[in-house]
Amino acid sequence: MDATDEIKQFKLSEKRRQERMEAMLQKYSFLSDTYAHGNYDATDGLFNLIDELFAQISNIVERDKVDFDILVVTQKCGLLRIYGHGGNDDIWTLIRDAEARSATVCAFCGAEGEAERYEKSPWSVPLCPVCAVTYSFDQYVEDMGDLI
Fold first, then answer.
1. What is the pLDDT of residues 79-118, one digit of tens each?
2. Among 62, 117, 123, which residue's Cα sits nearest to residue 91?
3. What is the pTM of this model?
4. Burial of 133 (0-12, 13-18, 19+ CB in 10 A)
5. Are 17 and 3 a contacting pair, CB within 8 Å?
6. What DSSP assignment string belongs to 27-45?
């Protein structure tokens, strides 16, 4: 498999993004109607981090009976950003921790650890050592487009 095929494998297609949004809406009650209307723009590599975060938030919402809504899940400068309404300190601490962790999660494959920061742009993209060698930044921008 060449690099182009691998990029296509990791590319988050609109259909796949929609499927993930629908699955998350079924799974997590705190996702708002705003979120349901397409406010999920994150690359494949961050999906597991987001799902893990949402599971933790769900536990806190149920435990503390707190009102909380996720409004937007996006990436800015290659890093995860989550916007919401309500919640408590425990929820917002988890969100800030996940946003910080996204700096060490490969945008393509989700590998944890010492992700390299790709610096050939005004913004940085976290890539693991394997993906940093395999993919060019230009291909990342072309394939991920408005997600970064």
1. 899 999 999 999 999 999 999 999 888 887 888 766 555 5
2. 62
3. 0.76
4. exposed
5. no
6. H-TTB-HHHHTT-B---GG
